[in-house]
Write a structure and sequence with these properties.
With about 120 residues, the chain is an alpha/beta fold. The chain has a single domain, classed as 3-Layer(aba) Sandwich (Rossmann fold). It contains five helices and five strands, in the order βαβαβαβαβα. About 25% of the residues are buried.
């Protein structure tokens, strides 16, 4: 069973995505912030990360940079990332694009397009 990490500070989005992806037979772990996600990465193997970009404290861009650094330093396989964001015109979005994540989904997102991005980018 493929394991997905969802990172978002919005509890409603976390619950909605967990419900949606669980119905699709994915194992889902959630984090309400970047620090929590970084700890989970060290304790679990994930096949995909779905993360908000704009979060209090550490944003999704910085979190992904730290996750990639951790995976490289520990000789672990890269994990594809999908960013979800409602801030397509801000600098932070440009920073996210520069990371070349697997996909970007704008809020409010269509569940069908999010599932499609998940299927296309989950690590085999």
């Amino acid at each position: 069973m493929k394991h997905i990490l969802i990172v978002d500070d919005d509890l409603l989005i976390v619950r909605t995505l967990k419900r949606l992806l669980s119905k699709e037979k994915y194992k889902v772990t959630t984090a309400l912030g970047a620090e929590e996600a970084l700890n989970l990465i060290k304790e679990n193997d994930f096949d995909l990360i779905i993360s908000d970009i704009k979060m209090p404290g550490m944003d999704g861009v910085e979190m992904v940079k730290r996750i990639r650094k951790y995976l490289t330093e520990n000789e672990k396989e890269p994990i594809p990332e999908i960013f979800i964001t409602g801030y397509a015109r801000e600098d932070i979005y440009q920073d996210a694009l520069a990371l070349k994540a697997a996909a970007y989904v704008e809020k409010p997102f269509d569940m069908k397009s999010l599932l499609e991005a998940t299927r296309e980018n989950i690590k085999n």
